[in-house]
Specification:
alpha/beta, Protein-Tyrosine Phosphatase, Chain A, 5-stranded mixed sheet
Amino acid sequence: MSLILVSPLSAVPDLLRAYRPSHLVTLLSPEFMIETPDGFPPQRHLRLGLNDVSDPSLGSSPPVEDHIAALLEFTRGWDGRHPMVVHCWAGVSRSMAAAFTVLCDRSKPGAELCIAREIRARAAHAAPNRLIVRLADEFLDRSGKMVEAVEQMGPSILVEEGAPVEFPLDVFGL
């Protein structure tokens, strides 16, 4: 089954063993960036060094358009035959925003709200990073629809760390 797994860093080793993904996306602050896990092909591991901030004036490494471009270039090379793991520190904000971005990119414009609702249904703790979503919305020319969809998700439950969440592509019609 083709799916995106969103996870906290702590669960990545177990997910790599259990799911044997073909692609891995890491979104961590530069000072906490990890190396590619042993045995995983480095060319299929995207490492994005960015802080989890929603205001670009905060943090020394806020999300920027280049991060979105790199994410989409990398994930457009994923054929979906094997799972892809997307993770950040807690599996709540940066990784959820990245997964939302990838799902929106693979969907037709107009599917943003359905995608956001499915993310909420599967992950009550999801709190997609608003700056990543705004930058992705602009990059994908979605005219604010991605931002609106995330705002309509409603508040998340507060957790220190999220649990891994599966997003099967067929649920999104992909």
